[in-house]
Input
Amino acid sequence: MPTFSFDITSDYDKAEMNNVFSGVEREMSGRYDFKGTPAAIDWLDDKKGFKLTGSNSWQLDAILDIIRKKLASREQSSKVLDLSREPVEANLKATLEVPFKSGLKQDDAKKITKQLRDDLPKVKAQIQGEEIRVTSGSKDDLQKAIQLLKSTDFDFPLQFGNFR
Output
């Protein structure tokens, strides 16, 4: 009996993030409420996140809303944004570093495998570094596993690939 499998990862599309960045820059240059203010968006080191600059925390929230809107229009999850850092306010400016979440942490991977084990006993899930390999003898069971995980609200994005 053949076994079928797929991989679960948590990552972001670098090309789409480039598009989001340029779209946000374009929209910010055209908005009247950003004229004459230090409002800007830059890349964090090696394009692993955004660095937002504004005159106050209200402006940072407005820039974040633009980013979320651009992510949604490009069919990317806003869960890729790590919003755990606090904004730094100094010299009449506020800055916020928003790194991207990449890779499944061990705790998150354990949550996923536990849920699959509890809800779909015919499916086997193995943690392999920063990804999870899900195997089963039935493609239907794998489809059920994908639907189950898509319907569950995790605080990190999930991608499914390597269907075999």
Remarks:
- The mean pLDDT is 87.
- Helices lie at 14-30, 57-73, 106-119, 139-151.
- The beta strands are 4-9, 40-43, 49-54, 88-90, 93-99, 124-128, 131-136, 159-161.
- The two ends are 14 Å apart (CA to CA).
